[in-house]
Amino acid sequence: MTWWASIGLLERGFWIIALAFSPLFLFQLIQTLLGFADLGFDGEDAAGDDGDDGGDFHLFTLRNIVIFFTVFGWAGIAFIHADWQAWRVVAGAFALALGVMLLVARLFVLTSRLSESGNLDIENAVGLTARVYLTIPEQNTGAGKVHILLQGGLRELPAASSGAAIATGAMVRVMDVQDDLLIVEPCQKEANHA
Questions:
Q1: Are strands 153-161 and 181-186 parallel, antiparallel or unpaired?
Q2: Pairing mode of beta strands 181-186, 171-178
Q3: Which residues are within 8 A (CB) of 161 and not within 5 positions of it... i.e. 6 or more apart?
Q4: CB 140 within 8 A of CB 180
Q5: Tens-of-pLDDT digits for all 194 residues of the chain?
Q6: Backbone φ and ψ of 170, nearest 5°
Q7: Cα 189 to chain center, whole Å?
Q8: Element (H, E) at 174
Q9: Of 65, 61, 94, 70, which is closest to residue 21 (Cα–Cα)?
Q10: Are the C-beta atoms of 21 and 69 separated by less than 8 Å?
Q11: For residue 147, what is the enclosing H or E element?
Q12: How far is Cα 136 from Cα 184, in angstroms, rounded to an integer?
């Protein structure tokens, strides 16, 4: 208590802010590291967004406000101990906190877009060509597998024939997608040689 009585009013304010928001910051950091960031602590999901605009820039979320005040508190304490003038302490802490908050918000937008771009939309395969990896049986008798370049990556996907069986190594064109199964037929060039 003698330490508390010995510090100035401005420093007390920064300590109160830092100590109040640091546990919340640690909680949300652990939550994010464990993959639970989408449970509503963000503010965006709690506000009732349906997720269609995931990756949009949201500055005033609960996560960002906690980050702002945590950085503001600790920066203020550090600047006071660096013997800055009071107005510089407040201005410097505010600027640093705002900068960190903007940086973190931007990073969340970028990581959100990265995770979205990794989601495979199998419908994008229609019209593309693929190479048969495991023989595809004739129509309605089972599925084989194809290797297809889809959304920037080589994918191995199940495929069924729209007609006759198709041997391993043959080139096929995706005609349709039904229940996450590619419906394929031999490419015209391959079919003419058969």
A1: parallel
A2: antiparallel
A3: 136, 137, 138, 139, 144, 183, 184, 185
A4: no
A5: 788 888 899 999 999 999 999 999 999 888 777 766 544 444 444 333 434 444 455 677 888 899 999 999 999 999 999 999 999 999 999 999 999 999 988 887 777 666 555 567 888 889 999 999 889 998 878 888 998 988 777 888 899 998 899 998 899 999 999 888 899 999 876 444 44
A6: -70, 150
A7: 41
A8: strand 171-178
A9: 70
A10: yes
A11: strand 144-150
A12: 9
Each domain of the chain, given as residue ranges in start order, spans 2-117, 122-193
Q: Tell me which architecture the domain covering 122-193 has in CATH.
A: Beta Barrel (2.40)
- Provide the whole-model pTM: 0.52
Give 171's strand partners.
131
C-alpha to C-alpha distance for 140 and 37, rounded to whole angstroms? 43
For every residue of 43-96, DSSP letters joined together read STTTTT--STTTT---SS-HHHHHHHHHHHHHHHHHHHHTT--HHHHHHHHHHH
